[in-house]
Specification:
Homodimer. Binds to stalled ribosomes, contacting rRNA. The protein is built from 23 helices and 23 strands. It is an alpha/beta fold.
Amino acid sequence: MNEKALRVLEYNKIIDMLESKATSSLGKDMCQSLKPSSEYEEVQSWQKETSEAVMMMLQIGTPPIGPIFDLTASLKMASIGGCLSPKQLLEVGDGLRTSRSIKKYISSNGVNKDKYPVLFTLADGLQNHIELEKHIEQCILTESQVSDNASSELRRIRKSIESKNAAIRNKLESMITSPVYQKYLQDSLITIRQDRFVIPVKSEHKNQVKGLVHDQSAKGSTFYIEPLAVVELNNELRELVMQEHAEIEKILRMLTEEVAVVAPAIAVNIEILTKIDFLFAKGKFALDIKAVEPEINQHKRFRIKNGRHPLLPKDSVVPSNIWLGDHFTTLLITGPNTGGKTVTLKTVGLLTLMAQAGLHVPADYGTELTLFDEVFADIGDEQSIEQSLSTFSSHMTNIVKILRDVTANSLVLFDELGAGTDPTEGAALAMSILDQLKSKNIRTLATTHYSELKEYAIITEGIENACVEFDVETLSPTYKLLIGIPGKSNAFEISEKLGLNTTVIAKAREYIHKDDIRFEDILANIEKNQKQIETERDEAIRMRLEIEKLKNSLKDKEDKWLRQRDDLAKKAKDEARAILKEAKDEADEIVKELRSIKSSADQSRNKEIEEMRRRLSDGINKNSDSAIDADVINEFAPEKLLVGDSVRVLSINQEGTVITLPNDKGDLSVQVGLMKMNVNLKQLSVISKKKKDEKVYNKVREFVSKTASISPEIDVRGNNTEEAIAILDKYLDDAAISSLSQVRIIHGKGTGALRKGLQAYFKGHPHVKKFEDAAYNEGGNGATVIILK
């Protein structure tokens, strides 16, 4: 892709915005190197990568991408037997920690592996080396400090150094507080010169204090003397310090050897982490500009649905619908200056470049873009005083280069084609240039306000007119493109609105040919009618969507009501059958008992009893069928109720309030005025809860809005422990509700009291799974990283 088009279309600003979303310097470098591609498979792959990053962040939140350093030099030094510094080892440890957290983020959140093939493949390539990570963490404290816990020998040496320091200080303290020596001293203090403990002695008494002179003041009035009494102690201290340095080097070499063993794996980790950081930067950028994945085709056509220029404020631009390549290859955009024609050109060009770079574009779903080998843009005035180029010459120089280098699969963007010279000649030249490009089937967008070109587009097949909507009342463009309509220049209306004398405007109208005036009036009427048609169409679409939504809602309610009715009917019939069967069984038992009382000789009595049993059975069966078939079901009976719900008692047609929950049979108590009555669910209907639902909805919306904006870190510096705990108590609740997996608490270093108080508080907090000091380049012990449950 030619650099001029990238510069003119401000592609570099898009890359800068993308770079700001990357976490690491390596990821930022990868963003800066991103260039558009014309390879179909490559662009498709890039687009899918971006989509995976967007979907994963929407599903499980922002990834915990920690420090990622360029470890090339460190790994090479380790591999050839060098010794890494504490700073380099810390960077290795941070890289291992980030690899582990990213692998867990992608692989351990219950996400569908098939839905994220690219990210899962990258995560599978990350190797965890927890032992080395923990060993570095145990041994290295800061960029220049090795921990006492690195080895037992280092701990012993440092304790000996502390002991020796104390012995030297005690000895010197006894000397500077002694009346014998005080008169010889310049100050009663102990200082260090050339790594030796010394005392400041007045120059005139330097011979009174036996020892070694290590330094003197600038004026020569003070000599810094190491008393003979501590020379040996200082020597022993010096030896201990040398032992400490030797032990530290031994520890660093041991850690370096461990790094060397896994250096190739760490190098692969860094490469993968850089790619992951880059992919999520693309995802964050897409979410930030509300972009979507465009469909990519190879048919030299595009259709942008509600496209927005990504560098313009989202809330102040009316999206435009732009298409080219199906029925026409050239789009000629006309309209007044400041009308938004150039923005339209840049929107098409920039969205094309973004899509070919694998970035999502700020438009609606259904946007379709194609791949171009080259994008050529002649936009803006690049006249040069040094090269004696006028505006026309500058444009023509660019056009000559474009016509020389253009290919059959190029996109050409011309701004004010033919401008800067005589209108008649300029219009003729513009038509000739467009004819040449059209003959080669090259996709072209051009802007102009020459009337000749509007007429040319109307009568020439393959070229379509378009105009950018302009609000004359406010003198501001809406950036909405109207394809199929040539634009009216509105020069007189704009001039009048800006305050030009009406007499001047009237005189100007007299100089225009009547046919031109009539043509402009026709264009104005067409544009007016088009706006009205689009307004009515939008209203029709809105009403259709509302009707569709209402229809779906009613269908859902109908389906629910039918299911409820069928369930209640089945339940009622089953209950009726059970009751009648029980009554029948009881009646049979009674008859049986009666017959057993009578003697078998009393045949007439037995016949009478048998007849009674038969009649009872027939009557029960008849009642059973009647009970089953009767439509006695309350179709509006509630499935369940809560205490306090408002209901209507159908038997007395009165409103009441539920005061007890229904039992297994559906019986419950209802307070109706001063009367308390027992009823069944079938005798009730629920009074609308619309107002109550609206309050709940507002609370839920407020909650969602709040949790969506929760930050993954909070600064409590400047507060005392109690104040900080009060702030953090609410913050950790919000973070847990928002499903954040990790947060960072910035409390500063200071005296360490706030850190100790907060970490004691974190130990017992129900949301805190574990906590630890932040990485050295993220605040060290001035911040605490919390892993939430």
